[in-house]
Amino acid sequence: MRSPGSAAQYLPEDRGLDALRAAAGGCQGCPLYADATQTVFGHGDPGAPLMLVGEQPGDQEDRAGLPFVGPAGRLLARALDDAGIDPALTYQTNAVKHFKFTRKGGKRRIHQKPSRTEVVACRPWLLAEIEAVRPQVVVCLGATAAQSLLGAAFRVSAQRGEAIRFPSSVDVRVEPEPIVVATVHPSSVLRDRSDAHDEAYKLFVADLRSARNVYAH
């Protein structure tokens, strides 16, 4: 019997993106669904060579129902352009499909990092998206996304920008298995107000360019 603390029990028999998106709308695989406005499923080219995986929806994404429409998404769009990546050839999603937040001052919703339990509970949706899209490269944006596929011990700071074989411990029915490239989340670049901001952005673009070079050959 499937554990109630997992999205696996909500996966439909039809594993096409439209069916997955519809089914994800009713997911109660972890407690995050209760406070979020809606499930924010992936969006983009259903046959994209490049899948971009973030952490979770932010406040604006939660309201709009689409990933990467907030400030970090705008920075990501600029970085994709600078890296020579056509956003129309990407599929964009998150490791966790519901917005986790705490309230400040009664109204303002402040992002909270999802727990390992919540990430694992939501992973069946991400794996189903990978199987449906069959990307050549999966770019993990930030530690949460990277660890959802590469394990809790993975450190983005140590292996960012590297082409990594898809882990054998993760069961996906895709041949050939995609390459994984990890980098920072665009929100971390956005928050960097130091003198190193420009360098942080350049490194982010360089990581995206590395991912592009994998599928371009």
From TrEMBL:
Return one Gene Ontology term, BP aspect: DNA repair
InterPro entries registered for this protein in UniProt: UDG_Type-4/5, Ura-DNA_glyco_family4, Uracil-DNA_glycosylase-like, Uracil-DNA_glycosylase-like_sf
Name the domain of life this protein comes from: Bacteria
- Is Nucleotide-binding among this UniProt entry's keywords? no
Q: Give every Uracil-DNA glycosylase-like domain span.
A: 41-209
Q: Which UniProt keywords apply?
A: 4Fe-4S, DNA damage, DNA repair, Hydrolase, Iron, Iron-sulfur, Metal-binding
Q: MF terms per GO, please?
A: 4 iron, 4 sulfur cluster binding; deaminated base DNA N-glycosylase activity; metal ion binding
State whether keyword Iron applies.
Answer: yes
Say which family it is in: Belongs to the uracil-DNA glycosylase (UDG) superfamily. Type 4 (UDGa) family.
- NCBIfam families found in the cross-reference section: UDG_fam_dom (TIGR03914)
Q: What is this protein called?
A: Type-4 uracil-DNA glycosylase
Organism of origin is: Mycobacterium terramassiliense
